[in-house]
Amino acid sequence: MHAKWLVRLETRLRGQAWVTALLVFIFLGQAGAVGAKTRERLVFDLKLGFVKGGEAILTIRDTTYNGKKAVDYHLKGRTTGVTDKVFKVDDVYESTVDAETYLPYRSVRNIRERKYRYYNEVFHFQDKDSIYSERTGGKKVPDNLTDILTVFFYFARNNMIEEINKGRTVVLPTLNGHDIQNIKIRFNGYEMVDTPMGPVESMVLSPVVDKGKVLKRSDGMKFYISKEGKIPVQLDFETRAGTLRALLVSYRINGKEQIK
């Protein structure tokens, strides 16, 4: 029964590249980044309905990039068990960002999903509003371009939450693979989320997308990011076939587990 449910879901998701990117978000070769020191490590269980579908590991490191203080985000997401027989996802996302602005210097996307393969490395030149993509070459881009892995960290850590009221949206130009999209983020207020660490007050953010074959409604994705510490604690993705959920199960700071 679970296998048939997953096949129906895979059929609905097929061709929706942004779905994989946003799902795996909850979620080391470092060209140009040296002296990296692991600061935080977050592990998420991915569930499709009542079925554990995989795991995602997000590692955050303090580093330097071309002599400047930086932060490296490394995310690995993979399917497991029955889900792996249908999706076979083994994806890696990596971004190195400026330690003050949280704008990216470098973005890597390495996708392995069933027979599909995609790799791209992009270098950002924020002072020139331009990028260089290994797949498509150089081009001009919008000011303050983020990427699909760090857009929510950029939003949270730059206190953009203070700039919008509940129910309003902010638009951020975002690199996804080698394409640039305008990601609309809606702030839905604060909620207490039950986590293995206990109740956590979290800001609720929703990417606003077009409602289609997958989503029940345009705000069917919700990211819960802790008010204190600005870490993702849960992701809900409401599809017509059921709810995809990513739950934080392990959180280490400087090697010390925070979840008892």
Provide a descriptive summary of the structure in words.
By secondary structure, this protein is mainly β. The chain has one domain (2-257). Helix content is 13%, strand content 56%. It is built from 4 helices and 16 strands. It has a 16-stranded mixed β-sheet that branches. A hairpin with a 2-residue loop joins strand 2 and strand 3. It starts with a helix and ends with a strand. The relative contact order is 0.16.
Estimated helix fraction: 10-25%
How many alpha or pi helices? 4
Query: Strand content of the residues, in percent?
Result: over 45%
- The chain-level structural class is mainly beta
Which parts are unreliable, with pLDDT below 50 for 5 consecutive residues or more? 5-35, 211-216
Query: Whole-number average pLDDT?
Result: 79
Count of extended strands: 16
Radius of gyration from the alpha-carbon trace, in angstroms: 18 Å
**How is the main sheet built?**
16 strands, mixed
Quaternary structure of the protein: single chain
- What sequence of helices (H) and strands (E) makes up the elements? HHEEEHEEEEEEHEEEEEEE
Number of domains: 1
Query: Span from first to last CA?
Result: 35 Å
